[in-house]
Amino acid sequence: MSEPIDYLSTDFHYNGKAIFSAKQLGVFSYDSKKGHLEMGCSNLKYVYEGFMNRKLNIDLTQGIHQQIEKWRSESLDKVFDWLLNSYDEGTSLEEALNGCEFVSRRGPMSRIAISPYIWQSLNDKSQKLACVKYNDVIFIREFTRPDGEDDKSNWNTFVQKASFAGRKFEQLITMDEPEGGEPDTTAPVDPNPELDGIFKANLIVEGRSLNIFYGCEFDALRASDGKFIELKTQLKFVGFGKYFTFKALSWYFQSFLIGIDTLVVGIRDDNFKLTHVEYYPLENLQSFFKKSGIDTNKCLLFLHRFLSTVKKELNGLPEGSILVTERLKNTDQFVFSTIDVGDEMGQAEYAVISKEFREHNWTH
To answer: Which locations, inside or outside the cell, does it occupy (predicted)?
Structure first.
């Protein structure tokens, strides 16, 4: 990898308005079997409303030692799976991507967007991404964070419980049928069955338009209005904690990027007991942002700024070169470095595009 070639600060003076719109292009499902994908909504889950607005005392750590490990990564492979199953070999990549010039996942896009603020949080995490141009399209993949934050062997008991509690809550609050059923809470928690979506977004700043193609995982659908919702857990009440605003910012953009306007929040106590469940409108989070001087428009402006910088850097490199960008925990700038086409070790370590995807012989 080269020495740093450029820097991008998340602390910038801004004005103007970012215009964002997103459209869902497709949906697909994974079952618990490794690699088994089905086009369509076979794994759709519905919100179970039987726990709403009731006093509860449910142990969110029950079954923690029987949980099934998640084997599927959050890399670009899911996006590749959908494309490979949707388009024949030799298809124009531009056509398959609906003219988008960037391909990524919702997670990295959300974390990039909130980086102007999240770096100040005690719970900030480092970011590391690799970007490569293929057939005039820029692919962006997020890698395991460089400081070991993603290494589960480093997790303490509290973090393990908190992670499992979120998955257990999903099991408790979702069911397979839109009405008349109840969740199966006796089976081991299995995070592998998924319902995923594919989106195209348009982000415009000062007349400069960027089109982004990305995938996401859906939590559940509310049967009464046919809208997807996001599931979240929170200690004591919405707003509790010194750094809640930063957590809320992450919640906000995870939902905003895929057009979700309502959260289902499970409130728990210090002992991981679920005490009640409530619907929470996404826009209500704006009140926390205003009190803390957070402007979600600035986040969108920075996302545009980041993507434009990646595009500029890659346009100056031979196709196949990898642009690596990294922001360390509690720092406010991204550092850019390059991996040359001839650097076999670097190319292997930071591979962005799968061999199977390349061998599909996409045309320009």
So the answer is: Nucleus
Tokens 């859906």 belong to 218
CB 97 within 8 A of CB 201: no
pLDDT grade, residue 113 (50/70/90)?
A: very high
* Cα three-residue angle 143-146-150, rounded to 5 degrees: 70
pLDDT averaged over every residue in the chain: 93
The number of beta carbons lying within 10 Å of the beta carbon of residue 343 is 16
Structure tokens that stand for 120 in this block: 């100040």
Q: Which structure tokens are listed for 164? A: 């499992």
Calpha distance 232→266 (Å, rounded): 6
Who contacts 230 (Cβ-Cβ below 8 Å, separation ≥6)?
Answer: 219, 251, 254, 255, 260, 262, 263, 264
Mean pLDDT of 212-221: 98
210 and 308 Cβ atoms separated by less than 8 Å: yes
The pair of three-digit structure tokens given for residue 58, joined into one six-digit string: 């449910």
Count of all residues that appear for the chain in the document: 364
SS3 206: coil
Q: What are the residues whose beta carbons fall under 8 Å from the beta carbon of 140, sequence distance 6 or more?
A: 102, 103, 104, 108, 129, 130, 131, 310, 352
- Specify the range with the lowest mean pLDDT, choosing from 9-18, 229-238, 273-282: 9-18
Residue 361 tokens read as 């012989």
Q: What is the mean pLDDT of residues 42-66?
A: 95
